Amino acid sequence: MPSYPYVLLSAAVSLDGYLDDTTPERLLLSSPADFDRVDEVRASVDAILIGAGTIRADNPRLLVNSAERRAARVAAGKPEYPLKVTVSASGELDPTANFWHTGGEKLVCTTDKGAERLRRTPVAADVVALGAELDWRDLLRHLHEVRGVDRLMVEGGGTIHTQLLQQGLADELQLVLAPLFVGDPDAPRLFGPGGYQEGRLRLLETRRIEDVVLMRYQPTAPGTGTLPSAADRHWLALACELAAQCPPSRTAFSVGAVVVAADGTELARGHSREGDDPVVHAEEAALAKLAPGDPRLASATVYTSLEPCTHRASRPVPCARLILEAGVRRVVTAWREPDTFVAGADGSGLLAAAGVDVLVLPEYETQAKAPNAHLLP
Ligand SMILES: NC(=O)c1ccc[n+]([C@@H]2O[C@H](COP(=O)([O-])OP(=O)(O)OC[C@H]3O[C@@H](n4cnc5c(N)ncnc54)[C@H](OP(=O)(O)O)[C@@H]3O)[C@@H](O)[C@H]2O)c1
To answer: What is the pLDDT of residue 314?
Structure first.
């Protein structure tokens, strides 16, 4: 299962939801203190990505302006500037744009056709061709695995933000609301039409910065099928945190579980040995909080730090069976069950054989194992 960078979308909008106006000059939406905050965020990431449309419209430099922040990056063993990445299908990029001639390393992610064009009209950047069409998951995997990007800041424009959010690939949205109106229907909007997650995003923070307001949101909707969404990772991280809350045991694992509806609503959570039940399992504890036949279960996802059990001494029905009986069709887990108590347990296999989509996200295995270290060789 691939792992992706943490993807942070950053944008400023007018009160009527526009990213810019239609004049040739860039519309300044943020306040000076907020530009400095953006500088700080840039200094904290491994790469900054913008669409080719923003290079054409704004001709940005995308620098870390603060010399102190650049020095701190260097002192921490990082490049002075984050990698600058742009995305273009056409490869029609102006070689004289500021983007190529300021800051550190640059990368163009493009299609085979775009790469061909860039061979004829090169820009001062590495070019990676990602096939006939560009797939965002391939791009994110490339940035993570080939370029070592763990944190990616995406600074627009709207076409890019819309795709990443609609495809469930954004971990966080940092939105600044500026107290002015654009009022021109031809101006670019932050988010275009299309299919977004159902339900509500989670509000992480609001912050007043001079006359603008920063709002930080986290998407909440589980992915579909075996494709992970960014929200899948957040819910699985929560399941791992719940595992750390279990009363300790020498004879059973500490596990956390969360049941989440398709629209991103948390339905129930549980952890091993919860309350005054010394043998209850995490998935069992969570599912017991929901009415049998709850219609939301059929499209829900169960997140569990350790894969559901197939055999248990303490109760007759193992958790994999409880999940099937509840009608859940999607399970995300961090860790396959070791042979500590049951040899050859294969909860993921049992569920998959019954038609459940099972995802194992091994990047959370260390976190899932931590409260169980005393049970492992
Ligand atoms: N207020 C803010 O915070 C903020 C921030 C950034 C930008 N903006 C504004 O946003 C506007 C630009 O936004 P925009 O939506 O027009 O452009 P954009 O999102 O910056 O870039 C769109 C371009 O990216 C490439 N692209 C997008 N999706 C792709 C895919 N799946 N595969 C391959 N290439 C892909 C295409 O380039 P090719 O055409 O080369 O194929 C496409 O034309 C400007 O007015 C700018 O001022 C505002």
So the answer is: 85
Ligand 1 pocket check for 12: Cβ under 6 Å:
yes
Give the domain extent around 38. Answer: 6-218
Please indicate, yes or no, if residue 120 is contained in any of the structural domains. yes
pLDDT tens readout for residues 331-377: 999 999 999 998 889 999 999 999 999 999 999 999 999 999 999 98
How far does the centroid of ligand 1 lie from the alpha carbon of residue 81, in Å? Answer: 22
pLDDT at 237 over 60: yes
**pLDDT category of residue 321 using cuts at 50, 70 and 90:** very high
Ligand 1 centroid distance, CA of 103 (Å): 20
HSE-up of residue 154 (Cα within 13 Å, Cβ side): 28
Contact, 323 vs 297, CB < 8 A? no
How many domains, in total, are found in the chain? 2
Span from the CA of 259 to the centroid of ligand 1 (angstroms): 36
**Ligand 1 neighbourhood includes 371 CB (under 6 angstroms):** no
Instruction: Clarify whether residues 31 and 150 are in a common domain.
Output: yes
Q: Which residues of 234-263 are buried (b: 16+ CB within 10 A; e: fewer)?
A: bbbbbbbbbbeebeebeebbbbbbbbbbbe
In terms of domains, do 204 and 78 share one? yes
- pTM for the complete prediction? 0.95
CA distance 103 to 81: 6
Residue 2 pLDDT level (bands cut at 50, 70, 90): low
Domain end call among 218, 243, 264? 218
Give every CB contact of residue 49 below 8 A, 6+ residues apart in sequence.
Answer: 84, 85, 86, 87, 152, 153, 154, 155, 160
**Residue 224 domain-assigned?**
no
Atom 26 (ligand 1): residue with closest C-alpha?
88
Using most ligand atoms within 8 A of CB, pick from 9, 10, 16, 19 the residue to mutate for ligand 1: 19
Find out whether the beta carbon of 90 lies less than 6 Å from any atom of ligand 1.
yes
290 and 208 in a common domain: no
Domain at 243, CATH number? 3.40.140.10
Please give the average per-residue pLDDT across 68-72, as a whole number.
Answer: 98
With a cut of 90, say whether residue 79 has pLDDT above it.
yes
